[in-house]
Design a protein that fits this description.
By secondary structure, the chain is an alpha/beta fold. The strands form 4 sheets. It has an 8-stranded mixed β-sheet, with helices on both faces. Strand 1 and strand 2 form a beta hairpin.
């Protein structure tokens, strides 16, 4: 039930900029086979033909009440809910939708129970305006400012004349809408399989249909417990954090964010922000710490760029590991040479609009950023200019260092950092006292 919040400037459109041909392209240390390129092309062709963005904006009383929006698919036997959003008056929201016949219901939740009562300002829109990608020929990206906005005017005189229950208990009964929101999983969950990991990179549309974005837990969620968000990198899954999770004290609970690697970072960070908004709105957690690996650090900073004041105030720590804050030259090479463009490459290319956007995020007032960088090709190896995947220069761009309250170097490679004894000692130490630099014997 991830809401798709403030500005998502430059969301990349799912389309192809060049004709298909076989190619082998070095990207992130991996050679892309012609089969992978064909899979990516076929998948993005399908997304372009079958999907679009609903961009909405609701007007209503600005009394602090959440505006709840439900999107329903019209079927022969009635309406079936397919997505839910919480909105603020005048702020745009986005939903990625497949082609279907939709009805939109919205209301101002004046009493905060997530259920519609007659008299609460409401609106019903049959056949809301949707910006279909198939009508955007000739564009490599979506200009979100140019999208048609579905205006939603709430009025107390509007009676929805039906029950509308968007509480968590009701949504959980609708497996289609909330199946990946705070669902209890194990590290071996099928969603995190190697097959689905590859699907997220080379067939992101198929991943969205089969798996979807997810915010998972390892045990029943406790609103009173301290919470840590784990954000994996490109072509990866939350399994990357299992060793780190085992080193984290038991008085924390974990949120595992899972996403298709090839989708635009603008959209993925937007979805993460919206999911965390839902957690705070519905559960009022006391604090949140963020631990991110590789590209997950870019996703996390994009989330912070869009976050509202309440989410930022609750976010205490940001621990990044081997994150390419300066981008990756392989993404730029992909944009230049590949016949098929993975949407994520636009954001990952050095100097991209997205990187400039998150570069503007000021973390000097919090959350406290602890930056872990890697500089070797093996555990305990010699100092190199990269970690086998990401350059040290990209990890340590000036703005990242300026915003970090502490910086730590780990002699390991790009993925080895997540199981390195130094990291496994650093993370709990930072969680205990993240107000400044920490030291541990293992480092």
């Amino acid at each position: 039930m991830f809401r798709d919040a403030q500005s998502t400037r430059g969301i990349v459109m799912f389309r192809l900029g060049r004709s298909f041909a076989s190619i082998a392209l070095a990207a992130s240390g991996l050679f892309i086979s012609s089969c992978a390129i064909k899979d990516l092309k076929d998948d993005l062709d399908n997304v372009q033909a079958e999907y679009g963005y609903l961009k909405g904006s609701a007007s209503g009383p600005d009394d602090g009440s959440a505006i709840l929006v439900g999107l329903f698919e019209n079927q022969p036997d009635g309406m079936s809910i397919v997505n839910v959003r919480s909105a603020r008056p005048g702020e745009p929201f986005y939903i990625l939708v497949p082609k279907a016949d939709y009805t939109l219901l919205a209301f101002s939740d004046t009493n905060g129970d997530f259920k519609y009562q007659s008299g609460e300002p409401a609106a019903r829109i049959d056949g809301p305006s949707i910006n279909w990608f198939s009508t955007m020929e000739g564009q490599d990206r979506v200009d979100t400012a140019a999208l048609v906005i579905q205006q939603i005017d709430l009025a107390s005189a509007t009676d929805l004349k039906q029950q509308l229950d968007l509480s968590m208990s009701a949504l959980l009964e609708e497996n289609r809408i909330a199946k990946n929101f705070l669902r209890v999983v194990s590290w071996d969950d099928e969603a995190f399989s190697a097959e689905n990991m590859e699907l997220g990179m080379w067939e992101p549309g198929a991943f969205q249909e089969k798996v979807g974005y997810g915010l998972y837990v390892l045990k029943d969620f406790d609103s009173a417990q301290k919470t840590i968000l784990l954000v994996h990198g490109i072509q990866d899954t939350p399994r990357r954090f299992e060793s780190i999770a085992n080193a984290i004290p038991d008085d924390y609970q974990l949120l595992l964010f899972h996403y298709p690697s090839a989708f635009p970072l603008e959209y993925t960070s937007y979805i993460l922000n919206e999911a965390l908004d839902e957690v705070i709105r519905r559960y009022q957690i006391p604090q949140l710490d963020v631990v991110a690996h590789s590209m997950g650090g870019l996703v996390s900073k994009g989330m912070m760029y869009q976050a509202d004041e309440e989410l930022l105030q609750k976010t205490r720590l940001f621990i990044s590991m081997a994150s390419p804050f300066g981008g990756h030259t392989a993404a730029a090479a992909g944009l230049k040479w590949s016949p098929v463009i993975a949407p994520v490459w636009w954001a990952m290319a050095p100097g991209s609009d997205y990187l400039q956007l998150i570069d503007s995020v000021d973390l000097t007032q919090g959350p406290n950023h602890h930056l872990i960088y890697t500089y070797s090709h093996e555990a305990g190896g010699e100092r190199e200019e990269d970690d086998g995947v990401v350059t040290v220069e990209s990890q340590l761009i000036e703005s990242a260092q300026r915003n970090a309250i502490a910086t730590y170097g780990v002699a390991d490679n790009h993925v080895g950092v997540t199981t390195n004894p130094c990291t496994l000692a650093l993370v709990p130490a930072i969680l205990r006292d993240g107000a400044g630099q920490v030291t541990v014997p293992e480092c």
